Amino acid sequence: MSTLPTAPNDMVLSDAFHDNLLGLPCLTLVCGKSEVRIARQGAQVLSWRASDGRERFYLSVQTGGAKQGEADASTLSPAIRGGVPICFPQFSVRGPILKHGFARAVPWTLESLVNHDAERSVAVLTLRDDARTRSIWPCSFVAQLTVALEADRLALTLQVTNSGDEAWPFTGALHSYLHVDDIAKAELAGLQGTHYQDATADNVEVIDPDGSIRIDAELDRVYLAPPASVQLREEGKPALQIGKTGFTDTVVWNPGPQLVQTLKDMPDDDWRHMLCVEAACASAPVIMQPGQTWIGSQVLSIA
Ligand SMILES: O=P(O)(O)OC[C@H]1O[C@@H](O)[C@H](O)[C@@H](O)[C@@H]1O
């Protein structure tokens, strides 16, 4: 086991991003046979292989993002299409700033790393307000993502603190792109009877009558007060249990065969190989008083 100190050690910690996936600098967290890759940009988890070696996240080969060798520009980087983007301080276009906020478009700082642990490897990354974020959103904050990897379980915890002296609202999400072999043989179970806002129809509110969600066209829903856990099934068998705490909503998104053709960072056929199941605070903002801390998590376990 190699354990790096929990106190910031700038040289060691900045060296951690020495791997790359599709040219995106990232660090690799290892626990036994399980492995996770985390990009510096957006603290975005790009890949997760549990002990069976199977990739559990979708990542577009046409993705944007700040590539290796490119300086972390002072401007925002193009979003990375896949893995787990962090949407903060705004979910989608439900507010005045850019879609899904800026957290996914800027580099985060690695604060601590416990790697190659036999039971639980953990990376903690932070984003604090600076001149650039304040030019977009004039609020003082500290956002922290904790990535905790166990043999067949990945826990992502987002902690947000109001470090200023005025209250502010935020919406956001852990926007997980789950990999599926074939969307026609995949279903999401557990949301039956839950109200949702249909983003493809002006957010009209509907009750989901179905036992499980199947995808053959664009689907974009914010489920309100959903159960704490839902299950991804493939070929009729459990594949992944998806739990959440703190986040009020579950968002389910797939662009389907038409909308995907308008996404220049995603191959036309790839809607068949992904399903976004997002832990979100989308339907109503979280109001943060000065000094207040909010915590939400998404926990993925091999079913
Ligand atoms: O293309 P983006 O900005 O990454 O957003 C992808 C999708 O993200 C989902 O969370 C939204 O519900 C969709 O409306 C949106 O299209």
From TrEMBL:
GO terms for biological process: carbohydrate metabolic process. It catalyses: alpha-D-glucose 6-phosphate = beta-D-glucose 6-phosphate. The keyword Translocase does not apply. The active site is at H175, E278. The keyword Isomerase applies. GO terms for molecular function: carbohydrate binding; glucose-6-phosphate 1-epimerase activity. GO terms for cellular component: cytoplasm. Keywords: Isomerase. InterPro entries: Aldose_1/G6P_1-epimerase, G6P_1-epimerase, Gal_mutarotase_sf_dom, GH-type_carb-bd. Its EC number is 5.1.3.15. It holds the Pfam family Aldose_epim. Belongs to the glucose-6-phosphate 1-epimerase family. This is Putative glucose-6-phosphate 1-epimerase. It comes from Oxalicibacterium flavum.
